[in-house]
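Hello forum,

I keep getting stuck at the same step: I have a sequence, I want structure tokens, and every attempt I make locally crashes halfway through. Rather than fight my setup again tonight, could one of you with a working pipeline run this one for me? It's a single chain of 170 residues.
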Amino acid sequence: TGSGIDCGSTCTVTLDDGSTATLVATPAADSVFTGWSGACSGSGSCEVNMTADASVTAIFTRKQYSLTVNKTGSGTGTVSGSGIDCGATCSVTLETGTAVALTATADSNSVFTGWSGGGCSGTATCALTLGADTTVSATFAPAATQYSLTVTTIGPGTVTSSPKVKGSIN
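Reply #2:
Ran it on my machine without issues. Output:
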């Protein structure tokens, strides 16, 4: 906008020789103004002295935010999704409004116990839409160690257990 101009993506206005057009760039709520090209440069207001035809481009980019994923707990596993494949900690920068779906996969000796942060909870996929710098944690715990118990009976009789277990007793 400026000097009687109110532009959408492209506009043309005719101005008198020797006049000055002062242009001001205003980003949308989800964008930032990164600068001018053409008859102006920099990121402040743009003044064009009209002594010939001129062209100016205002460059806007969508805001970007960081998404950081932390793996916590004493278990191990991986977190991936939406272009992310994390080691112990990872961070990626994405445009505002980007939908992200994170999946946690526990290693064979661990279990995934849940999400925290970024509006994520539970153990299902963590789905969020980036609108600010966001940190999400995936917690892994060691899997419970399990052992087999074999019970054999010799002669007539039965064996019961407490707690009651499923399986066959021979």
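The mean pLDDT is 87. If your local run keeps crashing, start a new thread with the error log.
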